[in-house]
Amino acid sequence: MDTLPAMLIPFLKLADAVMLTDSQHQIIAVNAAYEKITGYTQQEVVNQKASIVRTSYTPRTTHEHMKRSLASGKAWSGVFTNRRRDESLWHSSITITPFEIGQATYYVGVFRELEQLRSGYYLPEERISKLQSSMLKVLAISCEIRDPGIEEHLVRVRELTRRLTVYHNNRLQLGWNLEKINQIANASILHDIGKSGIPEGILYKPGQLAYYERQIVEMHTQIGADIIEKIYMEFNDELLANELTTGKNIIMYHHEKWDGSGYPQRLCEEEIPIEARIVSVVDVFDALTSARPYKEKWTAERAISFIREQRGKHFDPAVVDSFLELLQHAEAEQQYQ
Ligand SMILES: [Fe+2]
């Protein structure tokens, strides 16, 4: 361990918790506020790596960002969730500043304890969104587990829905924020969860369905809405509430048509929630351009001309316009043709 350079000593007088480390990120000193907040004494932590108090509640990306910043000689600020000596968690806003003293680098970490949460952790928005998205994906796959190609279809629907939603929002200046866009994209993966309630013999039957069989298949919208309702009641948590409401609209209305000839409620035009109008175009496009055991695969050109032909009939004309423009985009053409 290096001895403590004199110019770092004043930092230990700060009212915030302070940790001083050497170039190897080994702790060389902490101040009284640090001892009080964490429960560790200076003797216990000196010579230990600064990472001893680390927890998995601080995302790996936060650590990586911090390391990159410090390695390039820059100060770094962020939020950490660390562990006290008694195993409880504490959340702090931290600034770490590198100091060159002689030939060596030292780091001064100043921790300001964040207001105590009554429960839970500080989590960054992206991490919450990723958790929500993964949970919805697992839910969607488990509901449609009988269909072997389903995971790829669902992920493609989610990604194309995301791109179409972003494009539509920009083109028409709708003012949707990223949270709303993520909600629509994440929830799009749930559109067919109600198929779990439809007998396989009907669901995967090649060729034309009889009238009563079609009636049964069409029930997947209502069955899916019932499933999501139950999950909603079970979770009863605002973390998923918006996703589930958006999900319910998509599940219930993704087979409604702009001209009112769809199902289950024969809604017309803007009576159909916008998220369902978007997913409807994406779902049909992906289904047409995918091979399934019970149907042939269409070329992208044929599927695009079908979508164009259904503008104002099956599909919202404004969403079709966004979709066609999006596909004209070189990158989109590369990926979907
Ligand atoms: Fe469907």
Report on the biggest sheet: 5 strands, antiparallel
Average pLDDT, rounded to a whole number, is 87
Which outline best applies? elongated
**Strand residues, percent:** 5-15%
Outline the low-pLDDT stretches: none
Amino- and carboxy-terminal Cα gap: 61 Å
Query: Can you identify the CATH class of the largest domain?
Result: Mainly Alpha
CATH architectural group of the largest domain:
Orthogonal Bundle
For CATH, the homologous superfamily of the largest domain is named as Hypothetical protein af1432
User: Helical element count?
Assistant: 14
Helix and strand content put the structural class at alpha+beta
Q: What is the CATH topology of the largest domain?
A: Hypothetical protein af1432
Radius of gyration computed on alpha carbons: 27 Å
Question: Biggest sheet, strands in spatial order?
Answer: 2-1-5-4-3
Give me a quick take on this structure.
The protein is of the alpha+beta class and 337 residues long.
Annotate the secondary structure layout:
Layout lengths: L16 E5 L5 E4 L1 H7 L3 H4 L14 H12 L4 E8 L5 E13 L2 E10 L11 H19 L6 H22 L6 H11 L11 H4 L7 H8 L1 H16 L2 H16 L20 H15 L11 H10 L7 H12 L1 H7 L1
Helix pairs in contact: 5-6, 5-11, 5-13, 6-10, 9-10, 10-11, 11-12
Bound molecules: fe (ii) ion.
The site of fe (ii) ion has 5 residues, from loops.
Question: Which tags fit this structure?
Answer:
single chain, 337 residues, alpha+beta, Beta-Lactamase, Hypothetical protein af1432, 2 domains, five-stranded antiparallel beta sheet, 14 helices, binds fe (ii) ion
